[in-house]
Amino acid sequence: MKKLKYIFWTVAFVVLYVAASAQQQRFPKPEFESGYEQPTTITPEPRALSLEYFDVLVLLVVLSLASWLVLKKRSRQGVLWLSVFTLIYFGFYRDGCICSIGAIQNVTLSFFDPAYAISLTALLFFLLPLAFTLFFGRTFCAGACPLGAIQDLIIIKPISLPKWLNKTLGLIPYIYLSLAVLFAATGTDFIICRYDPFVGIFRMEAKFHMAVLGVSFLLMGMFVARPYCRFFCPYGVLLSWMSRFSKWHLSITPSACIQCKLCTNSCPFDAIDYPTNEKEVVKSGLGPKRFLVYAVLIPVWVAAGVFVGERTHTWLSKANPDVYLAELLISNPEIKNDPDNIDVQTFLASGKTMEPLVEEAKIIRGKFYIGSMIAGGFLGLVIGMTLLNTIVFRKRQDYLPHKGNCFSCARCVDYCPVEK
Amino acid sequence: MKNKGIIIFLLLLVVVIVAVLVVDFISDRPDRSNPNPFAYNVEEFKNVAPELILYKESKNFRIGFEEPVAVAIQNNKLYIAGDKELKVVDLSGKLLANFPLPEKPLAVEVFQHEIFVAVKNKILMFDETGNALSEWPVPGNNSLITAVAADNNNVFVADAGMRKVIRYSKNGEMLGEFDGKAEEGALHGFIVPSPCFDLDINDQEELWVVNPGLHALENYTYDGQLRTYWKSTGVNLEGFSGCCNPSHFTFLSDGRYVTSEKGLVRIKTYKRSGEFEGVVAAPAKFVDEGRAPDVAADSNDNIYALDFDKKIIRVFEPK
């Protein structure tokens, strides 16, 4: 039976690969003999559809394997080797594209731009990890994300961050997510891809400043484990939400916790919640009064966020090239005569006049007006809820992984002496 | 403080990360854009070493067309189509005859004493004095005829719109068509991204068709079987560059090729084997980014180039 399975998968792989290899270049590549430097593209070269589906299949297999290794096998070693595979396949071989994190933008754009059709691959890359997380926790982060893998492998001496700092920095992914959705919805930019610190490393052709960004994150990751995943990743926000409701999640101990505390320092991500001391909580004065104040403040935070969004929408909309160009040409019309200004010259060469450009810019700014207020309101809500969470008392008797923040890397299970 | 060194290091990294993000975000704006760093300078390819130029321009003459379209040569006469007219001039440029056409012409071919003019969705056949002999339709909603070639019994029509070559008898009976697809994996079909799709028949009665997307000249049997081909890609002198070249070609008396390119406008000759031979007219002779001249050659291997931008016939003689 095993042999049959092996033959089936081998044949499937060969068929897919051969079909893809049969594709041929439509045009001969330009031949440059003068040492011309070709511009690097944001996305890698298009891939045969069959290979794209093969990538989805690989993701599905890796997610299944990661979930099995974490929940059933409880093997840190297995997760580690799986993440090495992920780094090689989805990172270096697939050039870090398409990734589930960036797929947020494709999904967003497909909702807001009727002319944009999201590919099935992008949709599945977005949905599959979320679906798996809803059932098994963040096993995607553990073994299927190349960005997570590259950071996970270089953790040397992780330091524990104070809780307040973890909470404060933990707001950045929400800001990043809001901006990414806002920019994608308005057709402005795919900022998640643009500021992906590792994609240039995967492709080995990063611009200098992006290489600096990637290396900085990696250096930081030696001491602050997975800084991008914890304090930047916008997809992590969605995964965190899903994981909180996960049906089966990694547990530190396979059966009853014996409170040995061996696992307390095992998590480099500060994602283990300690048992709560009810007496201390009562003594600290955190009570219903404070809870009510914080709860009442939530609408205030939302209103403040909406206000800030409304105030900043003009500034934010300038990130859109059409808006910026329209403003620039109105305020500085002589720039039309600058032959070296590639953006202006491209606009002039397109034959478009100022009227449609200004009209388009107005429409985009209108979208930013609404979008910025929604984003601001959302961030206000997140801040309000985060503050409220700091004073909500949850009774815990054991050492438990924080379901939202835990990457299911299974480091902690190796520290637990309890056997099944 | 515990881990003081690490914390200072981390703070420095935070500053670097924030600085990179901010600088990148604000620097990529239209008023701060640098001149295109990836602009490809083709100026150097416009210069051709004098020893590689095998022809000299001996004369040129105006043809009086607002919109010249094509040139063909037969019996020491030039047949030039343009506007809604066909002009016959001798090799010195003297007008011998002209006759009106019912529609704007797209291509012209002369074989012995018969003139073939392609107009939209139609081939018109005339005798030397301009009497209509016959006409037949070329079907296809997207049809765009770019070249015609004829021999004793056949008329081949290059249809850039439908990306195929259609073979007719001289009575207008369709004898076949082909799209250049050879057996699996051997060669792509005709790739014609722009209306530059030429064909011609040489002294050996071989049908040659340009596959412009592949920068190739392909030889087909009359029933559309690929017999052989040669190709040359590159902006260097030996190659064809961009999309879609060679735009036009013709044969010299001994079967060598004369090719004409757009973009980097130049006329060159190639040996029968497809090996680069020399330059007829270097890019400096033409308008920058101009159209590729249509070319014809007489029995003395003088080359007549229809310069669409200057609306003249330019004559190039071997040096």
From TrEMBL, chain A:
Pfam families with a match to the protein in the record: Fer4, Fer4_5
PROSITE patterns documented for this protein: 4FE4S_FER_1, 4FE4S_FER_2
InterPro entries reported in the protein's UniProt record: 4Fe4S_Fe-S-bd, 4Fe4S_Fe_S_CS, Electron_Trans/Redox
Membrane-spanning segments: 53-71, 78-104, 116-137, 169-188, 208-225, 291-309, 368-393
Domain 4Fe-4S ferredoxin-type: 248-277, 397-420
GO cellular component labels: plasma membrane
Top-level taxon of the source organism: Bacteria
GO MF assignments: 4 iron, 4 sulfur cluster binding; metal ion binding
Keyword list, A-Z: 4Fe-4S, Electron transport, Iron, Iron-sulfur, Membrane, Metal-binding, Transmembrane, Transmembrane helix, Transport
Keyword Heme: no
Protein name: 4Fe-4S binding domain-containing protein
Species of provenance: Mariniphaga anaerophila
Lineage summary: Bacteria, Pseudomonadati, Bacteroidota, Bacteroidia, Marinilabiliales
Automatic annotation (TrEMBL), chain B:
PANTHER family linked: E3 UBIQUITIN-PROTEIN LIGASE NHLRC1-RELATED (PTHR24104), SMP-30_GLUCONOLACTONASE_LRE-LIKE REGION DOMAIN-CONTAINING PROTEIN (PTHR24104:SF50)
Membrane-spanning segments: 6-26
InterPro entries documented for this protein: 6-blade_b-propeller_TolB-like, TRIM-NHL_E3_ligases
Protein name in UniProt: NHL repeat-containing protein
Transmembrane recorded as keyword: yes
Membrane listed as a keyword: yes
GO biological process: proteasome-mediated ubiquitin-dependent protein catabolic process; protein polyubiquitination
UniProt keyword annotations, A-Z: Membrane, Transmembrane, Transmembrane helix
GO-annotated molecular function: ubiquitin protein ligase activity
Top-level taxon: Bacteria
